[in-house]
Design goal:
The complex is a heterodimer.
Chain A: E1 4-13, E2 16-26, E3 31-35, H1 42-50, E4 57-62, E5 65-66, E6 77-80, H2 92-102, H3 107-121, H4 136-149, E7 154-158, H5 166-183, E8 186-191, H6 194-200, E9 203-208, E10 211-216, H7 218-223, H8 228-233, E11 240-249, E12 252-256, E13 262-264, H9 267-273, E14 282-286, E15 291-293, E16 302-308, E17 311-314, E18 319-325, E19 328-334, E20 345-351, E21 356-359, E22 364-365
Parallel strand pairs in A: 3-8, 3-9, 6-7, 7-8
Antiparallel strand pairs in A: 1-2, 1-4, 4-5, 9-10, 11-12, 11-14, 12-13, 14-21, 15-20, 16-20, 17-18, 18-19, 21-22
Helix pairs in contact in A: 2-3, 2-4, 3-4, 4-5
Chain B: H1 2-7, H2 21-54, H3 58-62, H4 76-82, H5 85-118, H6 124-136, H7 143-157, H8 167-171, H9 173-189, H10 193-202, H11 206-217, H12 219-235, H13 238-243, H14 252-260, E1 261-262, E2 265-266, H15 268-298
Antiparallel strand pairs in B: 1-2
The chains are: A alpha+beta, B mainly alpha.
The structure holds adenosine-5'-diphosphate and magnesium ion.
């Protein structure tokens, strides 16, 4: 019952266009993550849904009702802020019950809801502490508790984990996911961290410069990015992109990366790529994990070539290897036992079934 | 890259040490005690001298003996003042004025500061600066225009503002409100914006946000402003001197000098006793509120 719909939503701050007319449909119970670089308009979008910012143009609907002129408290939303925004002079219980008290909810119902939320979040023993007596992770839980207690139509999170250290962030990420599985409230979550986005989201919304680049489930974004930006933004280490020429040789196609290196395009892609043969400004894209050490039994679209490694970075479960083609650094991920050595030649294997071809002019993935 | 980080792990450069932390600290402490003592002597000498004098009879004060010692202590100055209805009237006038002024000041300046700090309306920034600028105008420049205004009020409405102690209740806020508003704007501005946004989402009205969030969180600032307002109104001298003349309308600072100095006869013992009694209420209030003030500070109230 709580879909969120954005129609041609625009936000203008004086002369700055922060959000440039975005359309978005968020379904009931869905966990949607807005992700993008800093300043791309994620927070602004979220705050417009919350009612903390007026929208310059367009419509926002929550649960089917247009809420453009509805004040935040009547939108039936709850928000978790990056700095938690706990009321410093109230203890955890009071923090969580503040909203309900203002709505004149009966005391016993407040108590029941606070205790239930505290149990979900495992903060029952913290209920009479003040925020300053809590650790970052605990404050984060209380902030979530404050949202859960109100049982809103929509949860809004604005970078809720950015103030935590790396280890705690991973832990709280799982926690948020668990809570969503228990509470099943429609959630809009803002982050600049693509890993957070991938791990949490039912669907990811990639934003850039006030526009939506692509919307889709994490794996779809990962494997079939629609734009150069999404291809480069999602995934770490980032996708390798090398200028290339698309050449035809009979029925087959080849991407030429340098004078000495060209790789055959899989047969399944030839029809799709044929119109772009000879086009200037093409980029060949391949994720590091599709550039591995060679193995005894190569699959159909795997091709090997020799490179001279510049740098190797052992990560434990894998080793990142770097080499250059025409001065552009390329990263591959090889087995730590594959014997990768800096300044030595190594035979690598490119899994061309996972290649991307990007038009650098239109920034579209072809 | 990984190799490189291992081989270049830098050994801490070994440099001879010429001084130690504890020695630096000892010197710092010595200097601070030296200056603190200097300060204490400088600022405590007058009140001590006042206290000593207040315990002397007029005869002893005028006698040519060591003025720093009381040879024949007497409480007659204090008893004389405390049994004197005139002195008690001064005291009561001062107290009533101060309590009213503090109340009025805080009611106006807290609300004004909240509006100026948080509600972005057209001209709010200019207004905030304007509020502070009014504080910078010296009061000595104001009492002649005020005479004119009082005359006008008398002509127009038939209300005589001259020579009434309660006129001070209207006058003093012009001195206290701007500065207190300024202090409160500072405190309110330091409260993270997300806090009122959270309250807004929780369903609080502006007024509830002010009373339930801002005032409790900015309590140290509120107390600082209260102390300021009280000090200004308790110690105000110029306005009551200019605008009140009848004995029963005088406030303490003016009353002491006008009634205890008769022509060229200075009743030093009673003047000193009166001044010390007059200094007692602020001292008591400071002592009480300071604890609270410091407790508020150490609670780190403004960090979520
Ligand atoms: N209150 C404001 N006034 C003017 N410009 C703003 C304001 N808030 C945000 N912006 C601008 O809008 C753009 C988007 O900001 P924001 O939504 O906060 O980005 P982010 O994706 O990092 O959350 C930025 O260019 C920012 O400078
Ligand atoms: Mg942001």
């Amino acid at each position: 019952m709580a879909q969120v719909t954005l129609r041609k939503v625009v936000k203008k701050y004086d002369e700055v266009l922060a959000v440039r007319g975005i359309d978005l449909d968020i379904m009931d119970k869905e966990f949607v993550v807005l992700v993008g670089p800093s300043g791309c308009g994620k927070s602004t979008t979220l705050r417009m849904i919350a009612g903390l910012e007026e929208i310059t143009d367009g419509d926002i609907a929550i649960g089917g009702d247009v809420v453009n002129d509805v004040p935040p408290k009547d939108r039936d939303i709850a928000m978790v802020f990056q700095n938690y925004a706990l009321y410093p002079h109230m203890n955890v219980y009071e923090n969580m019950s503040f909203g309900l008290k203002l709505k004149r909810t009966p005391k016993d119902i407040i108590d029941q809801r606070v205790r239930q939320a505290a149990q979900i979040l495992d903060i029952t023993e913290l209920l009479d502490r003040k925020p300053k007596q809590l650790s970052g992770g605990q404050r984060q839980r209380v902030a979530m508790g404050r949202a859960i207690v109100r049982d809103p139509k929509v949860f809004l999170f604005d970078e809720p984990l950015s103030n935590l250290d790396a280890k705690l962030r991973v832990q709280m990420r799982t926690e948020i996911k668990k809570v969503h599985q228990k509470v099943r409230t429609t959630t809009v979550y803002v982050t600049h961290d693509q890993i957070e986005a991938m791990t949490l989201a039912d669907r990811v919304v990639v934003m850039n410069g006030g526009n939506i680049e692509q919307v889709g489930p994490p794996n779809e974004l990962y494997h079939s990015p629609k734009t150069k930006f999404v291809a480069g933004f999602i995934g770490s280490p980032a996708m390798n992109m090398v200028p290339c020429q698309l050449e035809a040789s009979g029925d087959a196609l080849k991407v030429r990366l340098s004078d000495t290196l060209s790789l055959a395009v899989p047969a399944s892609r030839t029809a799709r790529y044929r119109p772009h043969v000879g086009k200037p400004g093409l980029l060949f894209g391949l994720r590091p994990e599709h550039l591995t050490e060679t193995r005894p039994h190569l699959e159909a679209d795997m091709q090997t070539f020799d490179v001279k490694l510049d740098v190797t970075e052992p990560m434990g479960m894998e080793t990142l290897v770097y080499f250059a083609i025409n001065g552009i650094d390329i990263c591959g991920r090889v087995n730590p036992n594959a014997g990768a050595r800096e300044s030595q030649t190594m035979k690598l294997c490119a899994d061309m079934a996972n290649m991307h071809l990007i038009d650098d002019k239109t920034e579209q993935v072809l | 890259m990984a190799d490189a980080t291992i081989t270049t792990s830098p050994g801490a450069p070994t440099r001879p040490r010429y001084g130690s932390m504890s020695r630096d600290r000892r010197w710092a402490l010595r200097w601070s005690y030296f200056f603190l003592t200097l300060f204490a002597i400088f600022f405590l000498t007058p009140p001590i001298y006042m206290f000593v004098t207040s315990l002397k009879s007029s005869a002893e004060i005028s006698a040519e003996i060591n003025p720093w010692w009381v040879f024949d202590p007497t409480l007659s100055n204090y008893i004389g003042l405390l049994t004197d209805n005139v002195f008690l009237t001064f005291f009561l006038n001062s107290a009533l004025i101060s309590v009213c002024v503090v109340t009025i000041t805080m009611m106006i300046s807290v609300v004004a500061a909240f509006a100026l700090a948080r509600m972005k309306f057209w001209g709010s920034a200019t207004l905030a600066t304007g509020v502070f600028l009014t504080y910078l105008i010296p009061e000595t420049l104001l009492f002649i225009p005020l005479f004119k205004m009082f005359a006008w009020v008398n002509d127009t409405f038939g209300i005589q503002l001259m020579n009434h102690w309660w006129t001070m209740i209207i006058l003093y806020p012009t001195l206290t409100v701007p500065f207190c508003t300024w202090i409160m704007i500072g405190y309110f501005a330091s409260i993270p914006k997300e806090l009122d946004e959270a309250a807004l989402i929780d369903g609080a009205t502006w007024f509830q946000t002010l009373t339930k969030i801002f005032i409790p969180v900015a309590l140290p600032g509120l107390i600082a402003a209260t102390i300021f307002a009280f000090t200004v109104s308790w110690a105000q001298f110029l306005y009551p001197l200019a605008f009140t003349t009848s004995t029963k309308e005088l406030v303490l600072p003016v009353g002491i000098i006008t009634t205890l100095i008769k022509g060229d006869v200075f009743n030093w013992g009673q003047i000193m006793a009166g001044a010390l009694l007059g200094a007692a209420p602020p001292l008591i209030i400071y002592a009480f509120l300071m604890d609270y003030y410091i407790a508020g500070l150490t609670a780190g109230a403004t960090k979520g």
